């Protein structure tokens, strides 16, 4: 047997018998193969799949609106509960990212659930780290719900994600009396109380999100997701929850990207065999 082969085999046997290095770990991500290769092309690598979860209680009676109100009523306890859940979930995701030597989390999937007495927020994404630069991050890890493709386009244009910002507002519409409900039965008319409550909640939530971006010196918010409409357990209460990625220009000026024509090679053509002559 060749001496080099025997040496390699003995080294492999010794490696199997020795304990693994605790500082080394395999990477885990929810990225596709295309996204992973694109990430490597940008000079980054996925390090770990991280998450942040928070469940915050809503005081009892918050969603019980008294009769006799003339206009929409904001519900600060519910609004504050969502804001607290977002903040704690983000802090935990950043903590896990820092523990994986990442500089940020991309492709964050946000799940929000509002119940009668609590609200839950869950962040799940992939921590990324530079391949050649020092692994120890110097700044606080960022969170973004942008996909790897959008993250790459943003970076090539001279921009960078700053943070995942959010806003929320709960507004209760005044309850209608029985006489008013019966007078509207069988008619197609606008419900101004519900409309006003939803419009008010939207304005307040969007203002919160934009104010959070301004506080971070961001130029704007992209890829905004929205949950809105009456609550399932309290139809007279309108909720508006929004979140997106605050971005900032880091290059001297915006770098335009020339579009490229891509022709797919796997087109599928359906035809009937009887039509072939």
Tell me what the structure shows.
The chain is an alpha+beta fold and 277 residues long. It has a single domain (26-176, 190-252), classed as 2-Layer Sandwich (Translation Initiation Factor IF3), CATH 3.30.110. The protein has six helices and eight strands; from the N terminus they run ααββαβββαβααββ. A four-stranded mixed sheet has the order 1-4-3-5. It has a four-stranded antiparallel sheet with strand order 2-6-8-7. A hairpin with a 6-residue loop joins β7 and β8. The chain starts with a helix and ends in a 28-residue tail after the last strand. The model has no long low-confidence stretch (mean pLDDT 82).
List keywords for this structure.
Translation Initiation Factor IF3; alpha+beta; four-stranded antiparallel beta sheet; 8 strands; 277 residues; 6 helices; 29% strand
